[in-house]
Amino acid sequence: MSDEETANATRLASQWIALRQTVLPKRLVAPGPDAAELEQLFLAASAAPDHDLINPWRFLIIPEHKRADLGELFALALLERDPSASADQVAQARDKAQRAPWLMLLIVDEAKGCADIDMHERVLSAGCAVQNFMLLAHAMGYGTGLTSGKALKSASFGAGLGLSASEHAICFLSVGSVSSRKPFKARPEVSQFTRIWGDNA
Fold this sequence. Notes:
By secondary structure, the protein is an alpha+beta fold.
């Protein structure tokens, strides 16, 4: 690649990164990525840093025919936390499972591979995989959003999804075409999140 081609590629990548924006699942509609695009997206995720190549994370894909079952797990987790939840609140919990054409759960396993690789490093690897996925999806023209919530900490929720005792549900990743966007929020200035060691200014 020539210097000019490298510069152009760098400029384009910088633009994609700078313009990526989180889109709430309720603003994501069909069509979502097709099979060939998903293959590319998952290959991008697989390029995440992974100490000792233990692959401590995985994506649990929620297909369309399982959305209602997921909704029931959301409802059950809510009622476990708040037995007095109203019918409307339970319905809203169920509805979370029906948003966005593509939905999957990020799971990190604290026991897979070498025990010396701690949980922080495993979650960091998973985060890099998600960012790779989201950036490429953005370049393809799709919107993406991450959601979590109290349900993910529920033992019944994890059991309902078939997670093992060492697996942690981190967040959901939604992907689809963008129906509408919120106003773009400015990024923090570099000086807000960088410091030179020994510089007290």
